[in-house]
């Protein structure tokens, strides 16, 4: 049985309609291309203390980090863990907090502009107040983590206290 010439285009049209309709329900963001023009880099630099050359160097670093596991133009938590801890699988409360600090939009991934914005705090010409705020945030987090493990409130974390999983508290 041979297919008629009209039937083949009809299948193509139906496939196109079905695929277009199902794409409406796809919640995945398309890969973010890291194609920045010199004007884009100037705009980013104008909002920070970085020069255009420094922003360009940060873009190169960002590209390396964001493609280490998933090449989608975003830094995911596993990629940050891989870069800092040399393993994407381990749990680390401090790294989780660091990731949350960089993920300003709270969408589960770090975009290039967020990356540059947070690193701006570490710039040598950054205001001391911004650096103090960041350090205060980390000290607060460490104090909370310490209190979670110091179950006997002795001011020391003893071997037995470390073995108690935090999720049981």
From TrEMBL:
Ranges of residues in domain EF-hand: 90-125
Q: According to its record, what are the GO cellular component terms?
A: membrane
Gene Ontology terms, MF aspect: calcium ion binding; kinase binding
Give the superkingdom in one word. Answer: Eukaryota
Q: Which InterPro entries match?
A: CNBL1-10, EF-hand-dom_pair, EF_hand_dom
Q: Does the keyword Nuclease apply?
A: no
A GO BP annotation: calcium-mediated signaling
Query: Which keywords, in A-to-Z order, does the entry hold?
Result: Calcium, Membrane, Metal-binding, Repeat
Localization recorded for this chain is: Membrane
Fetch the Gene3D superfamilies from UniProt. Answer: EF-hand (1.10.238.10)
Q: Which SUPFAM superfamilies match?
A: EF-hand
Q: How is the subunit organization of this protein annotated in UniProt?
A: Homodimer. Interacts with CIPK.
Q: What this chain does, per the record? A: Acts as a calcium sensor. CBL proteins interact with CIPK serine-threonine protein kinases. Binding of a CBL protein to the regulatory NAF domain of a CIPK protein lead to the activation of the kinase in a calcium-dependent manner.
Designated name of the protein: Calcineurin B-like protein
Q: Specify the species.
A: Salix udensis
């Amino acid at each position: 049985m041979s297919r008629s010439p009209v039937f083949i285009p009809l299948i193509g049209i139906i496939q196109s309609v079905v695929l277009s309709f199902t794409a409406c329900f796809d919640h995945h963001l398309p890969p973010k291309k890291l194609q920045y023009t010199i004007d884009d880099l100037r705009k980013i630099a104008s909002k920070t203390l970085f020069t255009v050359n420094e922003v360009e160097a940060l873009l190169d670093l960002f590209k390396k980090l964001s493609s280490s596991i998933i090449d989608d133009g975003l830094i995911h938590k596993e990629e940050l863990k891989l870069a800092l801890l040399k393993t994407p699988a381990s749990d680390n409360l401090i790294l989780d907090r660091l990731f949350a600090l960089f993920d300003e939009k709270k969408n589960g991934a770090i975009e290039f502009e967020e990356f540059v914005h947070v690193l701006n705090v570490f710039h040598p010409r950054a205001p001391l107040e911004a650096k103090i705020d960041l350090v205060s945030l980390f000290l607060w987090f460490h104090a909370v983590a310490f209190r979670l493990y110091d179950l006997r409130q002795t001011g020391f974390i003893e071997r037995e206290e470390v073995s108690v999983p935090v999720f049981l508290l």
